[in-house]
Amino acid sequence: MAPSNKPAKSKGMTLPNLDSAVDPTRIAGLLEESRQYLATIFATVHDGILVIDAETHTIVDANPRAVELIGCSREKIIGVTCHNFVCPADTGNCPITDLGQTVDSSKRTLLKANGEVIPITKTVASITLRGRLHLVEIFLDISGWERTEESLKESEDRCRDLFENANDLIQSVDPKGHFLYVNRAWKETMGYTDEEIARLRVFDIIAPTCQDHCLTIFQRVMSGESIRRVEVQFVAKDGRQIDLEGSVNCNFVDGKPVATRNIFRDITERKLVEKEREEWNRTLERKVEEKTRHLKEAQAKLIQSEKMAALSEVISGASHELNNPLAGILGAIQLLRRSTLSKPIEPALMDEIDVLENIESAATRCQKIVEDLIRFSTQARCFFTQVDINEVLRDTLGAMVAQFTQTAITVSWQPNPALPRIEGDFVKLFEVFANVLQNAASAMPDGGTIEVATRLLKAYAKPPQLVVTIRDTGCGIPAHNLGKIFDPFFTTKPVGKGPGLGLTVSYGIVKKHNGDIEVKSNVGKGAKVTITLPLRQPSS
Q: Alpha-carbon distance 466 to 516, whole Å?
């Protein structure tokens, strides 16, 4: 029985028709397609590929990228032993076949045809071709990466060196307030160690008075705002408050805040200098104001002196012109009185005598005024002796104690017992103090207090002076009258209560002592009279 070409049947399975399943043409096409596919990859891949006989270490194939990296033609590469050609290993020390190493994306070196060595990453796989073991080496030139990494490292080192050697305080803080970085100046200024900084949050070092301000700044920066200038106060580890000025911004990644960047300059010293300058400016302004006031006072005193000198000349002439007629009137009154008294006493005669006495009283009062004017205008010579000014004041107060008691005036006597004696005229100084005290008493008709004090004034580059201060709690002097109080006949008292020559005469006596008299007053707050006298007279 002839054999059948039909496929055999088997219970439960069907055998394939080999003639129909295996198509040599189709298989050849697939193999050619696969070969072209692999060849294309081999030729175009960016990595270098070498195929090396594992036994002889001979290079049997190289792709274009490997040829380019090695730097010579493919013909000079194929058939050459890899040792000391493309691989720095000596014969017998192959890392794969001799040392048994596994090379998978390992960092190695490649020898180029010109002797140059470049860094590469290499992966080695084993493959059997035509019954022999081969090594497939795939390598990538990373010299550009290394140069980039080196440049990046140099840049980082430069930035780190710049930050660490900067005198400004540099810090970086994450969104939760933890410190990511602080430079050397920050650590030295604040006094914290690295361990302490790791536990700190930014608001732990901000002064309490600056917390709200800094929280607002932090929120603005976290929202994307860049703040070019801000002033803050930090508190160092030792409790010192440090004034800082700087800028703040934030680094964002994918739209999210990652870290703030802060650069601050310590302006504590500058703030102190500014404060001292402001204080100096205020002091200078006060000194200028004080000097201006002194100049105005000196000008007023000069005007007063010139006015008094002019008045003195006018009064001197008028006083002498008045004195002679008054003397004649008083003499005539004496003759008329004697003539009248020699007659029999009659009612009409008594009326004449009364008229004569009234005339004599008025003439006598005029003569007293003229005498005061003459004393003011001529400033009669003072008889200088060693005088205890406290004694002069005690005698003056003693002479007026009855008047003070009667008007319910209390005297506060505050002498300096260590005062030296001065050269002065006891009687004339007594008159000055009496006039001033009398004016003070007149200003307090319903009672009050008079303070009398003495002290020694010592000023730089000036001889010492004695100062007498008389202060009352009376009605005070209006500002528009202060410039007139030393003028002759100026008075605010009712008619008949004084001719207004007391302070005028006192002014002349003080000037005769080469001293000064000054009055300050506010209405309703009393008046203060300051009399300054030298210890020694120039003539001495």
A: 11
